[in-house]
Sequence to fold (420 residues):
Amino acid sequence: MSAADLVASIGWTLVHFLWQGALIGCATAVLLTVLRNARPESRYLVACSGLLLCLAWPATELALRLLGGSGTGGDALVLFAAGLVAASPVDQGWAALLADQLSWIVGTWAVCALAMSLRMVAGLVWIGRAAAQEGIDPAWQARVERMAAQFGIDRAVRLRIVESLGSPVTAGWWRPVVLVPAALVSGMPAHLLEALLAHELAHIKRHDYLVNLGQNLVETLFFYHPAVWWISGRIRVEREQIADDFAARQLGEPRRLALALSELEKLQFSTHHLAQAANGGDLMSRIKRLVRPDTQALNWKAAIPVLGLAAMSAAVFAHAAPAAKSAEPDRAAVANFNSCERPHYPAESLAQKHTGTVTLGFLVATDGSVKDTKITKSSGHRPLDESARTALAKCTFKPATTKGQPVEAWTAVQYVWTLE
Fold:
């Protein structure tokens, strides 16, 4: 595959994810609304599944494009991972317009994704240095080890006291570390700080750090889609509620954790995106939930954007369905034979007296040039196939038309190689 095909494959995958992500976001929002009074574990699973689908769907499409050997994006069908076939909402008019901008789209995406990757690496480096260099409190370290044993955590958990931090954060999977602000150690009552540490240990017990890294990966790749950020935000909200519930059960005192969160709210703090922190989500709503759990009524005003997104998605598919049926142009492409050269018989094929018939598929662009070629049936001899492909690429055509407008269209031709 050529570099141009690779760029086109990536570009069309990014473009198609605009509507794919909208559908995933809509479905996730509906399910989360239905499960608004369920356990946070259920909502967490739905949100994680939605974000995973945001990665799996475009990854599958990209793999199919690369395996197909063609980066063209005006195709009417996009194969879904489960084997479902859905029509693409990008019609020929938009396809022609976007095709000219794919290199800019991919280039801009690559620069932004690289910048976000560097930001993520910088966060990991900061956490690593903090874990290696900051202070150690033997008394609190011993208390954390006892709590970890009570929580059933079989890995050693390190505790580090950090000056330039406003809220406890947890990082690491194999060698987890809890970073605690020095202001909390010196200014918060021990029983309340212990409640915050219980919350952090809940993250370690559930291996939340690995999920959070996965979130950062999807956010880096698809930073341009609001649905990705919304779903990822919901994952963090539900994860904090799960950790609150776990810590409250271990402590046996939900109100103690609520009071600790209330004290934490009074501090000025910053959130490190690559770690789980006790200040994740809305602190006031978490405090209220711990003190006085209540059912949530359906907020129809909040559902209006979801309904609007559902209507838009339905309109997209309604537009896409006929496009698949009308993919054949009204008039096929016609060759300008004066521009075509007779294929050159390769010398090595003449010497070995090779003959055969090669069938070529080729894509005629709206300007009449041959945009792409593929061998659909080989002659059995590679030199003959490539010679035919080279000759065809030099031809010009009168492009196919749909309702009088030129469109890209695939057609086929056969070259018969014989020796006279």
Notes: Residues 78 and 84 are 9 Å apart (CA to CA). The first strand starts at residue 77 and ends at 79.
